[in-house]
User: Fold this.
Amino acid sequence: MNAVNEHEVLGALLDPESIAIVGASNNEKSIGGRPIKFLKDYGYQGKIYPINPRYDIVQGITCYRGIKELPGAVDLLIVAVRADLVLGALQEAQDKGIKSALVFSSGFGEIGGDGQEMQKQLVQLAADNNMPVCGPNCQGYINHWGNITASFTGALVRGNFKKGPAALIAQSGAVGGMLYAIAQETGIGMSYMIVGGNEAVVSTGDYLHYVLNDEKTRVVATYMEGLKDVSRLKECARLSMEKEKPIVAMKVGRSAAGSKAAASHTGSIAGEDKLVDAFFRQMGIIRVDNADEMFHCLKIFSNPKRMQGDRVGILSISGGAGVIMADACEKYGLQLAKLQDDTEEKLRSLLPPFGSPRNPVDITAQVLTEVDKFYDSARCVVDDPGTDAAVIFIGLLEHLKDQLIPAIKKLEESTSKPIIIIWMAGNDEIRKEFQATTIPFFEEPTQAIYALGQLNKFRRYTAAYKKAAARETPDTGKSAETAAMLDQLNIEGKILDEINSKKLLHAYNIPVTSDILAKNQAEAAAAAKQIGFPIVMKIVSPDIAHKSDVGGVILGINSEREVIQAFQQIMQNVKEQKPEAHIDGIMISEMLPPGIEMLVGLKHDDTFGPVIVVGMGGIYVEILKDASTRILPINRQDAYEMLEELKSYALLKGARGQKERHIEALVDVLLNVSKMGMALQDRIAELDINPLLVFEKGSGVKAADGLVTLR
Amino acid sequence: MNAVNEHEVLGALLDPESIAIVGASNNEKSIGGRPIKFLKDYGYQGKIYPINPRYDIVQGITCYRGIKELPGAVDLLIVAVRADLVLGALQEAQDKGIKSALVFSSGFGEIGGDGQEMQKQLVQLAADNNMPVCGPNCQGYINHWGNITASFTGALVRGNFKKGPAALIAQSGAVGGMLYAIAQETGIGMSYMIVGGNEAVVSTGDYLHYVLNDEKTRVVATYMEGLKDVSRLKECARLSMEKEKPIVAMKVGRSAAGSKAAASHTGSIAGEDKLVDAFFRQMGIIRVDNADEMFHCLKIFSNPKRMQGDRVGILSISGGAGVIMADACEKYGLQLAKLQDDTEEKLRSLLPPFGSPRNPVDITAQVLTEVDKFYDSARCVVDDPGTDAAVIFIGLLEHLKDQLIPAIKKLEESTSKPIIIIWMAGNDEIRKEFQATTIPFFEEPTQAIYALGQLNKFRRYTAAYKKAAARETPDTGKSAETAAMLDQLNIEGKILDEINSKKLLHAYNIPVTSDILAKNQAEAAAAAKQIGFPIVMKIVSPDIAHKSDVGGVILGINSEREVIQAFQQIMQNVKEQKPEAHIDGIMISEMLPPGIEMLVGLKHDDTFGPVIVVGMGGIYVEILKDASTRILPINRQDAYEMLEELKSYALLKGARGQKERHIEALVDVLLNVSKMGMALQDRIAELDINPLLVFEKGSGVKAADGLVTLR
Assistant:
């Protein structure tokens, strides 16, 4: 799909002016009958052309014997026939000049074997003719603002049809239909619902991109079982940031068991979950873990108001609920606003003595007996310059709804700050009244604060995106020079030994220790003298990854005599522990002053490409799992954020009387590793700099060891 | 409250055979009118005595002019009069022989000042007469099975009244009423709802204890803003374990902001939240964070069925939902059951080819067209010996409800394993049909798995409790000897120096290094010879807590000459960095072989008493926060669990080629510290053993430093 003509090409599929249905049926409950019934019921304004050789009229509309017999080209052909008839229908559609197709039929990739073969042919046919095809094995879509119900989903039988700013794109038909049904019942107004099934031609990324460009759409939720096209998703994410329309993603298969189940369900590979997390965070995509979280997000993002900061003012009729919300603010990264003194003063004059004018403001149920006081108190919180959003908590009190709801609506209209309503244990009438507005309405306090937390998170994402876009773009250029260098190295097997690994690091301006490879004791003694005592001696072998584990490292050698002893000792240790290893020699290196040991690594991931990791070095990275990960490339801001995420960051900043470390130099290493990872992404499977010693501020860093594994 | 006569004393309050209401009103909406209306509406079978000097009849019932005028003693007096009239009424009730009272009236402790004073008098009056009083400033309670609505909560106006096995006890009136209303609307059948307000006399712990002993009650949910009576809660927790009736606690004030808000709301101190977590976990109390989680728990625990293990079988009409549930199982500590081969074989014969017989079993929507196949597939999962519970996921398909619901009920009745139903986007009829059963019914898959996770957690809690009860009880004996020793020590200020701290540790069989205190260089040299090189030298001063930070420690001293140099160096460092410190001398200690540095500590907490902490030693405990905490006393099993919780436990077990450490010896230290903490709980404010060196297996542990702070 070329993004330039997306509007034209996908427009024919998703906003067609005419629709033909092959396999059209008079049975309003059948797959070939439902779309016609729905299109009529929901007021589709375009032309409908049923196709079925057995009828002249279907559901009251003139029916055609075949695709060829249609009076002219149409925008969209819905295909509701047996799998083995699909390819023929598509070919005829192509011959007729039909612009797009939607294939409900099952029996393709999802059943493997012959089905897979047919799907390949379908893809080829679509590619040859640049025809967008939704499906096969899909439930189709609903374009609400166009009243286009090109779907047979049971959710449409239920009769809800609320138009609005939220789009939903789902890979799985069953889950998609259920999410859609709940969204509609929760009062979430929608622009699009698309269930693309096998996504053989048009993918989730394509749909996302299209609806992000749709003017009626303000937020897109997506349900994904696999990440099929990462680069397309990146384009969508950029569009999301630029248009400030959030993507809310429910990507399942987090756990090992879930990932296995996903693979057996759709055949898609889940991808390592922490990388999925990293990817979403870097892209500014909001990840949700379940349907509830998705709906909380859709509710709050459907409202056009956005926060300008992270400070929340809370007004509650219950002190206890105030406590619950204060807890939730901390959990979801929000600040309790500090109200100005005169705001508190004014509140004090409005509230009974057992209320509290401090945020969370406890107005008590008593104040509700005078609606003016309720309104004035809420006004105080909303108008205070210290608040970026206001949360109003009401409980029970359904008998006051006719006074309270108009007051809340008036408040909402009079401010640009988001106003969130929580009415706990209200009733159905209250629910319906709020669902008819764009005011985010919740019935449990922590849900509301969760949603507000996501609104704030999206603010941070877009701000970071704009800052990064304005300042610098990551260096992603290919480096022919180092690629050529790799070819020239004398590489046996897939592992670069330490000497060669360090050469590569050096080529990317990553500081490495001075080393000389010695083949025998005499060379070792000479090398030690050249480098200067104290020195370190380490075995060099392509077969030994963890040198310490086999007694292949001796530190703090101070004299020629010790060099000779150490040489013998290391050779003996290795011979005992790894008798089969090929030995290149022993490396003589400068002994470094003490520094904080960090690990910096690269890894090639099949889904995301090159990935960078930084964490505490030594055995701690494995045991304490204090590491942070990003998909490459990264920029300077990303690098700092990676470090700030580490618990061990406090060590770098200088904990308990220790001096601050040279963090800037560590950041430079991360950026250079990013550059190297991008340039050599086709060659490097893994890079492990461990330890990278970080010295005191001003004294830089140095890689004491490095190991590159090639792909 | 004495537990022995609890049934009699609290029974008069919570299960009265006759109720008088002072402040009785004909206004059915007033606080004095509502309880009478509710008692009549909800079918209370006992006698009702309205009291009001102004009426002869109230709401159709004979009214009395005053308490004195009552025809005889009653079980319960409800007090709905102005605050300043309450004490008089209670005194009259006492004179009349009325057994208990319930005070709705506000204006006591919650407003401070005079109110606080009146509350004190109320407490005194109740204590003098052993009269249980609910409130003041409370909403009262509902005893569902007794049809006793001794409350004015607005939730009763709504008209739901479903009897069942769940009790709810809430401190805050507003939140309590809302939780109750939602519970009833969610179809949770209830035994008791109690909102005790200021809890001046009868506390949450007392109510908990009473309802745990109630035969109709199977689970108790409690909403708490502060922990008022920890020892009473401990008794409740033991009762919960013994009766296998879970306590589900929503304790708010987790965050700093929330805790502050709670303190200003109820005046109760929240307690350090991680200690609250530790306390609940040790006591087998299930902590929930919000109202949703509370209801999920109540739903699942209301069903009498319990899991025998942690293995879940899942049957889903949607592969995608199967993935979501598999993810949730991992998140909530459940295993996906491995089905037996013949189960899978049988499922394969029942399912269409695009279904999956592997757990999570994907039966697809197609199988539902034949309800027998649905039933048979579910049977396979339920009957498989590898499953401890079965989860059935259905979506939409409301048109199949008349076939599916009877099949599910039949299945439920035919097994002792818990069956959980998730019907996503069903409809109100489906909801109501399931709410009328005890089958746990959910509408979102992760909620259901969360609830099942809590069921499994409670199984683990009760199993651990029984195991511990059967095996050993923690040593909690007072030790007069060491207490006397403390008195004899030459203590200046509140800090015991290292020498005295180690004496105390030694008295509790905690291995410490050999140390000699030297006042001058000559004594130091002699001590070093006596202990044997290499040695360590450390400053001893009650004013210096962190010796390394002031240059007060020198390691690895190998000769008499170095001893003299080190003595001078340390004295100079300390003089420069802490000129005002009182110096006792320098301690000469044995230099220990390398070991893993752990920290073991004690702390006195105002809410929970003595608390023990273990974690990695050195600066890591502060930075990496890898520590685990328990309220004392602990037993051997607790000690092992504390270590297993640590990320650094892998280090103790021997990571990356390192040898395993002497874990048993470390556990002994924890138990001895627990013993010491209990025995000296009135004396010790804090103990810090850091580092405790843990040597290789068989070589024990040794405390290299210790610091005791007295209370």
Q: What stands out?
A: Chain A touches chain B through 85 residues (CB under 8 Å). Residues 601 and 688 of chain A are 5 Å apart (CA to CA).
